[in-house]
Amino acid sequence: MEELRAIFLNQINNIPFIECIDENQFYDEFLNSPVETINQELILSEILIGKNISEINSEDEQKFNAKLLEIIKTKNKNYYIPDITRTKTYQKITKINEIYTDFLFLISEKKKYQMENDQLRQFIQQISREQEKKIAQEKRRNYFKEIGRKGGMKKKTSNLFTRVVSTRITEKEYEEIEKIAKRFKLSVSKYFRFLITEKELRINEFKEDETLLSYGNNFIRIKNLLRHREFSQLDHTKVILREVEIVTKLIYDYLYNKMNSRTEVDFQEDE
After folding, report:
1. Measured between alpha carbons, how far is 228 from 239 in angstroms, rounded to an integer?
2. I want to staple 36 with a disulfide (CB 3.0 to 4.6 A). Which of 22, 83, 241, 259 is the partner?
3. How many whole angstroms separate alpha carbon 40 and alpha carbon 65?
4. What integer is the mean pLDDT of 197-206?
5. Ordered DSSP codes for the chain
6. Pair (17, 80) in one structural domain
7. What is the rounded CA–CA span in Å between residue 103 and residue 78?
8. How far apart are CA 216 and CA 101, in angstroms?
9. Range of 80's domain?
10. Are 194 and 205 in a shared domain?
């Protein structure tokens, strides 16, 4: 009886969902099921006689097969045990496992389908973006072709210098005006244009820039002075140096950016 119990436990070891089944009830079904299964473990134990299953050789296999055929022919009941597959519990578990396996298969197929759909959607979106890009490029080409066919884009006439204003001044006045224009890095004609078109503010901006530039130069002198040995030992010298460097950089960055924007405006006016 104990041998049958051990055989039963060994057979149910790999059955799925076995933890959900009443083991004692299942064992009773096993004992009452038809005795139709050959006890192969008993045959092996007789052939191996204490040897480990991993030590089996070809001669042992031949003996096993011969013994198995003999038992089948003679129907020796001593080597037969109840057939666990004939029990209702085993059949129910097998059916549940089949349903569960089908369920897992459907889930995997659904995920695969969703993945394929996502890839297809991404592909369609990519194609659409490329097509929109091509259409936009084609419209741009056609637009410039049409412009070229009509003789080019219309030129702006509002900012073109089409009128000439002439006047006479003395040599001394001219030298004074030229001196001021050079001071602000302007030509004489542009300086005159600033004055007569009420752009005096631009001249005032130049004066502010000159003041800032002088401040920047003074800050540089202060910084160089603080780096001398007699001042470097004072308290907070490093802090003051850092603040001076920050202010100096801000001044020169402001002047540099302003000069660039001014150059761009002047260039557009000259066009």
Report:
1. 15
2. 83
3. 10
4. 52
5. -HHHHHHHHHHHTT-TTGGGS-HHHHHHHHHHS-EEEE-HHHHHHHHHTT--GGG--HHHHHHHHHHHHHHHHHT-GGGEEE-GGGSHHHHHHHHHHHHHHHHHHHHHHHHHHHHHHHHHHHHHHHHHHHHHHHHHHHHHHHHHHHHHHTTSPPPP-TTS----------HHHHHHHHHHHHHTT--HHHHHHHHHTT-HHHHHHHHHHHHHHHHHHHHHHHHHHHTSHHHHTSTTHHHHHHHHHHHHHHHHHHHHHHHHHHHHHHHHHH-
6. yes
7. 42
8. 82
9. 2-97
10. no
Tokens 């005006």 map to which residue? 177
Phi and psi dihedrals of 161, rounded to 5? -85, 90
pLDDT digits (tens, 9 = 90+) for 127-156: 778 878 888 888 877 766 676 665 555 555
Contact in structure between 83 and 34 (CB atoms under 8 Å)? yes
Tokens representing 203 are: 């001249």
Q: Is the dihedral of CA 73, 78, 84, 86 positive or negative?
A: positive
Q: Report the half-sphere exposure of 262 (CA within 13 A, side-chain side).
A: 14
Rounded CA-CA distance 21/15 in Å is: 11
Distance linking the first and last C-alpha atoms of the chain: 111
What total of structural domains would you count in the chain? 3
Residues 221 and 257 in one domain: yes
